[in-house]
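Supplementary Text 2. Reproducibility record for the structural model of the 287-residue chain.

All settings were left at their defaults, and a single model was retained for analysis rather than an ensemble. We include the record here because the model underlies the residue-level annotations in Supplementary Table 4.
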Amino acid sequence: MHLPPQITRLSQAGHDCLQLKTRHGTATLALHGAHLLSWVPAGQRDVFWLSPQSAPEPAAIRGGVPVCWPWFAKQGMPAEALQHGPVRNLPWQISAVHASSDDEVSLSLMPREQVSLAPNLRVSLRITLGKTLHQTLHTRNLGSQPFQLTQALHSYFSVSDATQISIEGLNNLPYLDKLRGMTPAIQQVPFALDQSCDRIYHHTAPSATHRYSLTDPVWKRRIVIDTQGSASVVVWNPGSEGAQAMPDVPDAGWQDFFCIEAANAGPNVIDLAPGAEHQLAQTLSII
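Retained model, structure tokens:
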């Protein structure tokens, strides 16, 4: 496919990549997993953290924005299913370039292979880089049976110190605490990291959009996350002990990122009927 000058092919972190560039900044996407590795708004530092210890392909990349599809963790799947679904371990290809200018560039990608445990599902990822960064994960059910879809855009946001950040948009939300046996609770105080965190927050009232923000007082920036088609948000940091047990995360690397993930998981399962479609999207902006 012929690419406009705003999209170039390059190699980064050992992966074949596409770099999108506008006057507002750059974004770098690995074709392995359609994995967003980097977003650097003009004049600013990278928004995402990428592990220097990520395993080589075909292993999933650690950091950036992994695509978790068509299941989150192993929810509803057999024990042998790949964690967070198989598409983050598969090669993807460009399916369309939608727009290209110095103000905005947008393209879609799709996996080169079908998913054996969900052969009748089709997925594509659209990425738009302009003043903001927008991602849309589009799922279609071409089969004759419904599918219980869970998913996430698993963003690893780069921070100065994970123990110093604050997150807005979680107050009064119920959540399941995976570190405490999926114990249910409600966020009644401002969020703060307590050694480690792995929670699925879920909205009980339907709404088209939700907003969260991550404030970093040291770097003096706020990352705003607007989500669509997402009834859950996963908040995760492995903490010191968790990082030491992960070979693709430096022992002290947990301090350098925080995950806030637009999702449908836990109690928020998408019952995708035959012929139905669903879109999970996030728009990221920097203040």
